[in-house]
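Case study.
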Amino acid sequence: MTYFEDLRVGNRTEVGRHTFTAEEIKAFAREFDPQPFHLDEEAAARSHFGALCASGWHTAAICLRHVVLARHREQADRRQRGEPVAKTGPSPGLRDLKWPRPVYVGDTITFAQEIVELRTAANRPEVGLRVARHTGTNQRGELVYSVLSSTFIERRTHDLDGAQG
Amino acid sequence: MTYFEDLRVGNRTEVGRHTFTAEEIKAFAREFDPQPFHLDEEAAARSHFGALCASGWHTAAICLRHVVLARHREQADRRQRGEPVAKTGPSPGLRDLKWPRPVYVGDTITFAQEIVELRTAANRPEVGLRVARHTGTNQRGELVYSVLSSTFIERRTHDLDGAQG
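After joint prediction, the assembly is written out as follows.
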């Protein structure tokens, strides 16, 4: 992870890609979202979705995996180059979780994150808040998933700020 | 599911309870959220969480399971009594996903949903929008999970409304 000062609004990174199989769609649904259109092809064909599709939370969980793995890759690269790695704090939460279109069997979803807001607060000079939009887009370029995620990121200059405050 | 007209703001239902084990916390994390404090007791002890804790998305997924199962139980009861079952549409999305406290190994979380808003729109007389807050509360009464979920629910009187419109 880069330090807060190195982040720029508009920065966009593709974090990974995933092709959803019927088997894993059903496995996730059996455990966490046992609705007929996530579990059974025939029931799904009769539903408003028209065919078997992934639980929206399954899409969210796969996006999470790619976001986490991309961060780990970046941190490993930095360590290998002998560069410092900024700390990230727990997420204060997410907003506006949306699934504009279903994810069907065989769809390949590309996950990306884009920085939409950067904020600092006088009472927390050691960190900045990064708001990023995580998205999933299918092979036809259609948005299937979107969420705004907030994370605290370590600032490089917090010692200086602290001394001035 | 009851019809939209039968819903009341403030109605609260407990949908289920779940005790989180170390094994399932790690299994979910391996698949979807491979951060050290969800995967390994010693790494978690050194983290800001202080001990192994569940991915927030794991808590969300378990809440989802209980919400879905509670709805299925209610629908089955209605069918058994020969009562009609209102249709529910896909969710237009969720807001304000929060994890105010970690879920640690052995914590028992009680999941509930409470109706916070009911809305109708002139251009969609057949359904109403129900906004419900889903929550998870641990055995000490502390909130560990909260999200606002919107769902379209069939209205009993939509034919009448349609005729009037």
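Observations recorded in class. The interface with chain B takes residues 31-35, 48-49, 55-57, 60-62, 64-65, 68-69, 72, 89-99, 147 of chain A (CB under 8 Å). Chain A has one domain: 4-164. We will return to this complex in the next lecture.
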